[in-house]
TrEMBL record:
GO terms for biological process: cell redox homeostasis; response to oxidative stress. Keywords: Antioxidant, Disulfide bond, Oxidoreductase, Peroxidase, Redox-active center. Residues 99-175 form the Carboxymuconolactone decarboxylase-like domain. One of its GO terms (molecular function) is disulfide oxidoreductase activity. PANTHER family: ALKYL HYDROPEROXIDE REDUCTASE AHPD. Its EC number is 1.11.1.28. The active site is at residues 131, 134. This is Alkyl hydroperoxide reductase AhpD. Belongs to the AhpD family. The gene is ahpD. It catalyses: N(6)-[(R)-dihydrolipoyl]-L-lysyl-[lipoyl-carrier protein] + a hydroperoxide = N(6)-[(R)-lipoyl]-L-lysyl-[lipoyl-carrier protein] + an alcohol + H2O. HAMAP family: AhpD (MF_01676). It is an enzyme of class 1 (oxidoreductase).
Amino acid sequence: MSIDNLKAALPDYAKDTKLNLGSVTTTSSLTDQQLWGAALACAMATRSAQVIAEVAGEAAGNLSAEAFKAAKAAASIMAMNNVYYRATHLIGDEQYSTMPAKLRMTVIGNPGVDKVDFELWCLAVSAVNGCGRCLESHEQVLRGAGMPREQIQEALRIAAVINATAATLEAEAALVTV
């Protein structure tokens, strides 16, 4: 299971996605843990079984067991938080943002890996899930911890390319049945 398998599975019309998938996984200035944690968390956010399996296979060789688990936790917690915080924002009534969420989120405070890495993964998943409020919050934490914008942008690029890969492969699978 690997990124190369995903690249091989992409159709010719998705050449840019294929090239970008190779680029974001081989030319990053992020640490291996940041890169592969973001890729795994984003793959899980896409819900594509094929993308999850291939990325997880490669991520397993680049992440410790703790980091692998934490990346999965980032995908899980943000699946909940992105829905909640996007909804409270989109309603347009700021009173909702002052109300306690009453959702358990202890993993954010104790993720089992460096908090900056976990925040980066949460930001990347929030990009996949389209939650502006969570993107703003995690970006502020990352910038406050001294992470350069260029590295935050890399996590966003990973999110975009993993999402495009999943969308393309899922669409192709659906077209086969037509």
